[in-house]
Amino acid sequence: MSTPAKDTTRKGPIAALRGLFPFLRPYRLQFVLAGLALLVAAGATLSIPAAFKRMIDLGFGSGAGIGSAGHVNAVFLALFGVASVLAVATACRFYMVSWLGERVTADIRAAIYRHVVQQSPEFFETTQTGEVLSRLTTDTTLIQTVVGTSISMALRNTLLFIGGLVMLFVTSAKLSAIIIGLLLVVVVPIVLYGRRVRALSRDSQDRIADASALAGEILNAMPTVQAFTHEQIEAERFGQSVEGAFATAMRRIRARSMLTMLAILLVFGAIVFVLWLGAHAVLEGSMTGGDLGQFILYASIVAGAIGALSETMGEMQRAAGATERLLELLNVRSAIQNPAQPQPLPKRTANGAALAMENVSFSYPSRPDTAALDQISLHIQPGETVAVVGPSGAGKTTLFQLFLRFYDPKAGRIRLDGVDITALDLHTLRGAIGIVPQDTVIFSANAMENIRYGRPDASDAEVIAAARQAAAHEFIERLPQGYQSFLGERGVRLSGGQRQRIAIARALLKNPPLLLLDEATSALDAESERLVQAALEAAMEGRTTIIIAHRLATVQRANRIIVMEDGQIVETGTHAELVAKGGVYANLAALQFHPVHVMH
Fold this sequence. Notes:
600 residues, alpha/beta, ABC transporter transmembrane region fold, Rossmann fold, 2 domains, 6-stranded mixed β-sheet, 4-stranded antiparallel β-sheet, 63% helix, disordered N terminus, disordered C terminus
């Protein structure tokens, strides 16, 4: 993700914001309506100085007489009419652009979240969750400000600037030419300094994302933090990160303050000089008082427009950095993609799925030089129960990640019912597989919805039946609201064994032909393990099951046991056969079933 960042930072703010066009395009009508309201409001504003000119010349000028009061009354009546038009047009513009800001921001957030949840685990190896959340919240809020306010203000002030400039030339071409020349001189340093503001804006957003990522990581690990009494240490780490973000933000604020001061000082200095020339022209009789008044008002409009544009440009600079970061996220492409023409799975003729690995080798993207699997070949028949054992780091969990196509092998292929899994639609593949992971995920919902996650269209009765099968029904019934009980964020209200049984019920509800059990009973006490083992044995009937377990008592009744070490299959057989061989499995069995007795 660093490469796109280097490319996009070379763009100007307008070029960076161009990436928002696909999100703006569906709302062309709303933009047209906002534009019409904008034109009417700008036209009303630009007509005010002309009214004041007539009031001064006809009411107070050298030609003022008996009818002056009538002229003044007519002018003020016209001014009230202009103000009414301005009020209605401004309200319409505000409503439309605010609606657009909210609508486009919602679309961007939805698009980014939809894109992120489709990424492979490789993406999450290198991207912190907190950083993604920062982009979804902070960065999109900046874009909301730009779409809902800044673009409208920029267009409004551009119209006022152009219209005011035209009217300045109509009023006095000589004075206007002088003021334009001076403005061209002062705009150059403003533009050059604006580039520095943009670079600091991008840096500021990055520091905020770093702080959010750190906070998310620590808050998700609070039991560990508190168990090691690291509360103060982590608070200081976060404090340092926040201070770093604050220091970067202050550099941005100082630069933007200087930019604003520079813009106002130079622009108004030029205007004051020209108005001084105009005052002398009135004294000399080459201009009327009304002309000078009109020129002053149009000059104020032009100066105000320039000042507002410089302020808006600061917002646009920040939003450009935010847009770049969001587009980087949207431009990330998962290494795991659906095939262009996915194949269907053949009609099932047996209970369970057939699974085959043919010379599969794999290394994790973050560890490309270390082989997690090395030339693995394995054939599993429909309805067979296969256990995979071995020391930590042997490659057992990696098998499951490849079966689910979270990653693709570097070499070899994997077939499900004879079809290469890379030729299957990802939903078809994963829909045929149920998994009980080692680290159970419980969502912030009630027990019923947590189990129903396995099959969203399941009825309450089917959910309860799955819970009974997983030995989870009794403890759920004892919860304060039974199946409607909220389980807390990440299941903090449940024990480890209860969370595991919820996960087992979820997999059983899905009722897939291939069931993957990754340490499915690791968190259970002896009584719960006995209940779940019985439930799992019943669940294994009629489907292919692959079990990963360190506790060999859970795998003894498997049809076949695969022993892995250093990413390779080193032994295959039944429990009795492998014990008789006296190899790796026999050593593991001896450690678990015949522990050394220590004399006291």
